[in-house]
Design brief:
This is Cardiolipin synthase-like protein. By secondary structure, the chain is mainly alpha-helical. The chain contains ten helices and two strands, in the order ααααααααβααβ. α4 packs parallel to α6 and α7 packs parallel to α10.
């Protein structure tokens, strides 16, 4: 037994060699960068410094001057600035469509400029006694409600990280506002009423009857348009943000 045991134990040990499995290809460089870079650097930005947006901003700047002129009796200047706002409102939209310069921020600041001008005109004309207080309350109440809604949708649609500075960075598109049809008509009627009210002290005509009729029409369309944003599914569109890893998928 002793002569056999060494022969058995001293034999070559079996070779348990394991074949390596298939090698996984290294992740793409872009994928590694997406994991390293913060979301703030990978979120797409858009060019907001376009001619239509600059024209819109000029309307925003002109709005308080219109109010100042109304309160201090400079009706000619107020009417001229109001006309400038109307022309640029038409011009910026035409340029954006003609040369494909539309931006997401433009869909926000364009109605914002209209509402700023409308708010200034409503407040100052009501203070002057040219506009009924009850109509001013309806117009301003609707705009306050829409403003609160805009703040809410901007916050919930902002891509992470949600910070105060990124909230006010309008080159980060997050939500798109689409005015309803009745809202467009209402804006035109409101501006028409404000323009006619601003014009009344300048022309030697009695516009009292026309103004009264327009006031009731505007009150109706204002309430109707406010309700349309509540019941319309297409008024606000949340822009989809790329999820983590979406950039690695083949197109």
């Amino acid at each position: 037994m002793s002569s056999i045991w060494p022969a058995i134990t001293s034999g070559p040990s079996p070779d348990f060699h394991c074949e390596p499995g298939p090698q996984q290809p290294p992740p793409p460089k872009e994928s590694r960068l997406r994991k390293v870079l913060p979301a703030a650097l990978t979120t797409p930005h858009e060019n907001i410094y376009t001619i239509p947006n600059l024209l819109t901003v000029s309307r925003l700047i002109a709005a308080p001057f219109v109010g100042y002129c109304i309160l201090h009796g400079y009706h000619g200047w107020a009417l001229g600035l109001f006309a400038y706002a109307g022309v640029t409102d038409l011009l910026d939209g035409w340029i954006a469509r003609k040369w494909n310069l539309g931006t997401v921020v433009g869909t926000i600041i364009d109605p914002l400029a209209d509402k700023t001008l409308m708010t200034v005109l409503t407040v100052t004309l009501a203070m002057q006694g040219s506009l009924p207080v009850w109509l001013a309350v309806i117009i301003l109440g609707r705009d306050v409600g829409l403003g609160i809604s805009a703040i809410y949708y901007r916050w919930i649609s902002l891509p992470p990280p949600k910070t105060f500075s990124r909230y006010w960075d309008f080159s980060l598109p997050s939500a798109e506002v689409r005015p309803t049809t009745i809202s467009k008509y209402n804006t035109a009627l409101q501006l028409g009423l404000m323009g006619l009210t601003t014009l009344a002290p300048v022309v030697p005509l009695d516009l009292a009857t026309s103004l009264t009729v327009m006031q009731y029409v505007v009150a109706t369309t204002t309430i109707w348009s406010g309700a349309s944003y509540v019941y319309s599914k297409d008024a606000v569109k949340i822009l989809s943000q790329p999820k983590e890893g979406d950039g690695d998928k083949p197109q």
